[in-house]
Amino acid sequence: MSQLDTLKTAFATALGLPPTTEFESLEYRKIPEWDSVAHMALVMEIETAFDIMLPTDDVIGLSSFAKAQEIVAKHGATGA
User: Is 22 helix (H, G, I), strand (E, B) or coil?
Assistant: First the structure.
């Protein structure tokens, strides 16, 4: 599974989104499924999927799917 596919799966699982979702356009609090509670579930899902620990700055900065891609890449995570 590619890094992109792993990230999409993390988003779909944490936010309860169908796999057909246009993930690239997702932004924090722009959809009802991505509220503050779901945000923490998403952080945990990303940490588990990529076996990384996100520092507070990255947790706060995780504001979109695109930003999540940057954060995951910054940590050198490749996904499962």
Answer: coil
**Structure-block tokens of residue 50:** 């990529």
Joined tokens for residue 72:
């995951």
Half-sphere exposure of 60 (CA within 13 A, CB side): 3
Instruction: Kindly list the distances between the CA atom of residue 50 and the CA atoms of 16, 29, 31, 37, 65, in Å, as whole numbers in the listed order.
Output: 19, 23, 24, 20, 15
List the chain pLDDT tens, one digit each, 80 residues.
Answer: 889 999 999 999 999 999 999 999 999 999 999 999 999 999 999 999 999 999 999 999 999 999 999 999 999 876 55
Q: Determine the Cα–Cα distance for residues 60 and 14; give it in Å rounded to an integer.
A: 17
